[in-house]
Amino acid sequence: MADATISGGLPQGRGAKTASPGGPMLAADGTPLRASLARSLRRQKMRALLLIAPLLLFILVTFVMPIGDMLFRSVENHIVADTLPRTVAALRDDPSEVPGEPVFRAMAEDLQVAVEEKTHTQLGTRLNYESSGMSSLLRGTGRDVKGMGEDVAKAVTGLDDAWEEPGTWVALLADPAWVQTQAEWAAADDKSPEPAFAASAAATERLPRTVEAYQAFAHVTQADDGDSVTEEEPWNLAYVALADDLRADPGAAEAFEGDNRARLDALSAAVADGTVPAVSYRDMFVESDDAWGEPGTWSVLRTFSSRFTPGYYLNAVDLKLGPNGIEMREPKDRIYLQLFVRTLVMSLVITGTCILLGYPIAFLLANLPERTANLLMILVLLPFWTSLLVRTSAWKVLLQQQGVINDILVWLGIVGDGNRLALINNQTGTIIAMTHILLPFMILPLYSVMKGIPKSYVRAAKSLGANDWTAFWRVYFPQSVPGIGAGSILCFILAIGYYITPELVGGTKGVFISNRIAYHISDSLNWGLAAALGTILLAVVMLLYWAYDRLVGIDNVKLGG
Amino acid sequence: MRITKLLGSAALALLPMAAPVLAQDAATELPPCDGCSDSMVIMSWGGAYQNSQLKAYVEPYQALTGITVTWDESSNEAIAKLRAAQEAGNMPYDLVDVEGPDSQRACDEGLAAEIDFDEALAPGSDGSSVEDDFGDSLINDCFVPQIYFSTTFGYRTDVAEWNGQTPDDICDIFDTATFPGKRSLQASPKKNLEWALVCDGVPADQVYDVLDTPEGVDRALAKLDTIKDDVIWWTAGAETPQLLADKEVVMGSTYNGRLFSVIAEEKQPVAMLWDYENFDFDGWIVPAGLDEARMNRVMHFLRFATDTQRLADQAKYIAYGPARASSQPLVSTHIDLGIEMAPFMPTNPDNMKNYLVNNIEWWSDHQDEVEAKFQAWLGQ
Amino acid sequence: MVQAQRDSAFVQFERVQKSYDGQTLVVKDLNLTVPKGEFLTMLGPSGSGKTTTLMMLAGFETATHGQIRLNGRNINDVPPHKRGIGMVFQNYALFPHMSVAENLAFPLDVRSLGKAEKEQKVKRALDMVQMGQFANRRPGQLSGGQQQRIALARALVFEPELVLMDEPLGALDKQLREHMQFEIKHIADSLGITVVYVTHDQTEALTMSDRVAVFNDGVIQQLAPPDELYEAPMNSFVARFIGENNTMTGVVTALDGSRCVVRLDSGDEIDAKPVNVAKVGERTKVSIRPERVETNKARLRPGAHTLTARVEEFIYMGDMFRTRLSVAGNSNFIMKTRNAPDQVRLEPGAEIEIGWLPEDCRALDAA
């Protein structure tokens, strides 16, 4: 900007306050003119920025951020990976339909943690959006997971009471350095959380599963419950893991010393002779619920294990992610595409009726004396001033089958008593009520545009030989088109997003996509789907706006003369 | 089914001599509340139901403690509001009134605090334990029940085309030959599917087993198809009473308390059909993560507000059955109208010859799928 | 131009009255005849009824009473689009959504002319106003003067015999206005059309018109050719409205055919030409054009009355000197003198004798 101004406005070497020819032009005080100009402009820009800052902030907070949030929610799917991190990792290595033991073991640990943190039900709710039954599956297995491996734990503690002691586990698994810090923490007694548990090198090497299971337990105990691992008996799963480790590596005890070694030796022997039973995680899960043994359950988990998902969008256009990729939903389950189409078509119809009814009124208002026009304008604005409830009641009284309009029609003999018209709780009801609500949005821009068309145009047309119709159609109407454009955009965009009125008078066939969005926001709580539907609606509106701009030209939209 | 025990207690309520005056000065029993906040924000439904809560225990509690109570009338979107509040990290509500299924969702989502009922609630005035007294209404660990309510049908008693017959069977809803005229049903699959199956010959105790099969929902929708053209679908509980009063429909489903208003208070020519009415619960949940002072206050209030006498008192203001068995014998007459409340109570044994109980577990699993299917069906 | 046509009554207003509110008349008992080929200007202050008269002629207002005839036919009930009258509006009223060529073609379109004929006529009309190269522009892309030409061309393209113009030059700057005055007059003359022109600018009226009708208060005050209007205003309104004027009030003391003596309110006596006075003793307002005031006694008739004037202000205007004088109690008396070699510059405070030829000082009504 500054460059253009200088080179365009003051040719090189001819400016009033130039320095050496070819060098930068200087202002009166010797600073380069460019810098001087930039400084003076900067102050103006800063002031302009300060003036719009409140609005900018307002728009950012109330508009940009919510829309950003909506876009994010429509693809966000952290909950599976966050709640079942081990399972998701294990599933990656196991492509079979119903995965093997490692995945079930990971699932047991994840679920145990999730139950402690009470997040498994949230996960169930999320997955239930994709497949019915996931909610109760996770809730039910969540109840059972605590009992899993109880046989093993009993066998182990039956062997040696010491295994019931939290201290035994700490002594076996903990890193000596951690024991040191833990002791200092305990002595200090300053209410800070216990230092995070760390396993010894020997334990990590020879008892890997035990360490993994114990660490999950330790994390929950320390971070979530604020307790000390030195005072809590580990979960059953730790016992199962220990037995598994010793089964896989019977000589693991050799890496340890003293009591630890003796206990492990004894336990190893018990594992070997079957005193401590071998259990299968998979069996335990299937015992809890048969669904864990079915491919469908795992297919859902696999499909929705990524952190971002197109699932909500697919759902929003009646598609689904099946085992064989994307496919249409069953015809009986399709709902959204039809609603989108209905919303668009009905919004167009409503916009059309608004034009038909609003144009003559705006024309009349624009051509009446100011005082009469103002009086009539109040009548036009009346819908704005009555509450929605009052209006809805009025519509019901007027439009229902035993309502005023039907009564009058029956009385006049236009319709028979048995054939009263259905004017409400269907699409007709929605169109009537929405036209009523949106009419002012059509009339106001039309009126102000028409007010701005001088009478002399029509007079000129007539003086040039045009009759009333030609003068109107060829001269007046084209100039009122920007008002129609503005009114239509207002009406259409408002109509497309309306949901209260269709809900009240639309019955089942007069509801819009926004009613479904509202349903998913406040009833089903499937905010991801609501966000996807909202985003699609936003995209459709922007697409139509773009099309309008291409066809009519957005310059051809005026809110006032 | 715990309801069978309720039956016995409710039967007692019908005997005049079994209405002992147990009202006592609660002030002497109300323990002090240490470390409690001095105000509460309660979310409820507004209208007559909220008024019954206000009169039966909120005002008495305020009189005893002097705390201030602010009402928020948005229980119909309670879960959405709770979730939004939790995401925003600022929980404005201390106590939220929800229906059973919503309490399940709040509990599942971690929005509601789990409550130790034995510790938090008062035992029954008849000495029964909390567990026994509330029985089946303790549907999950977060939900403190207040009332039983039922969704049932009301019909106009002045329909000429019916030739003097009146519906007394749930399946009369589907009998448009004998009972011509428009019906109003809730624009939601819940309850409608169950009724449809019952009238399609499914024994009441197998309704959810059938719904669980792949054809179950389709079978119910096929039954509903037979009356689809005669149905006006409602979304708000107040609609059916209005539609009945306006003669827009000849029969329609709604909450039994609403029908009580139409019949007893507005004196419309409307009667209630008690057959396979659908039972559900309404009660309190406490938002998760309240600070100690607020939590103390809420628990102090809950213990008072859900004791035997307070729940019985509530039935003076609204025709819903107290959730405690021990409250049933104390149910008497309407505070203003002076009429006996028992005939309007869903827990009245005369009204409970056949009934359904909303299966919260099944619905929490299948709500989304069935709702989508139902909406698609509605739109066809 | 054929003299016979000029004499015939092409446009005729007969006892026309117009009222908007049923209480006051905006146009009072108007009688006006415009011969074919005449350039008639209706001049007057705003609210004088001139535009209403024009609109009645165009058909946009209906006469409350009386008849308007065009070419001998009563057009009271003929709708505007059937009157065949061209019109140029104050703000041109060019259709903004049409190009210049489309604007011009509009009156031809509604008359269902063939394409070739249409194009030819449009081209000719554009060439006439020297706007040939602007055919495809939109009105919004043209300057005020250019829009004015297009408006003129559009009003003429369908070859009407009568063209109405409603202050068509009001929005232009002075220089352009003077240029367009000449051009409009030239085109009107060369096409031989009848023009009824409305303006409140007296210079414009004087420059362009064959005759000027001065309107005030719904009544034509004087209808005369420009020179007559200037030289011989029939009443004090016209005198005041047309050109600059010094006025003084007094009483007629002697009256003798073409001469009278007026004793001014200051007591001085002057010579004047009786125009609107009937008898001795009547109050009158005398009017003298500034350029007819004479300081050179040699040019006055012997025995003529003179007045003593004090110079208040002397303004040098290039070709003229403008001197403000105090005369007979009127301190706003203006005298214009030509800048000639022998003309002295008067110093403020100087006392001089002034006078005039009796026929230059018109004794009018006292209003």
UniProtKB/TrEMBL annotation, chain A:
Q: Which residues cross the membrane?
A: 48-68, 339-366, 373-390, 431-449, 481-500, 527-548
Q: Does the keyword Transport apply?
A: yes
Which SUPFAM superfamilies does the annotation name? MetI-like
Which intervals hold domain ABC transmembrane type-1? 340-548
Family, per entry: Belongs to the binding-protein-dependent transport system permease family. CysTW subfamily.
Species whose genome carries this gene: Rubellimicrobium mesophilum DSM 19309
CDD domains linked to this entry: TM_PBP2 (cd06261)
Q: Which PANTHER family match?
A: ABC TRANSPORTER PERMEASE PROTEIN, INNER MEMBRANE ABC TRANSPORTER PERMEASE PROTEIN YDCU-RELATED-RELATED
Tell me which UniProt keywords the record has, alphabetically. Cell membrane, Membrane, Transmembrane, Transmembrane helix, Transport
- Supply one GO BP term: transmembrane transport
Tagged with keyword Transit peptide: no
Residue numbers spanned by region Disordered = 1-29
The main place the protein resides is membrane
Q: Where in the cell is it found?
A: Cell membrane
Return any one Pfam family short name: BPD_transp_1
What is the official name of this protein in its record?
Polyamine ABC transporter, permease protein
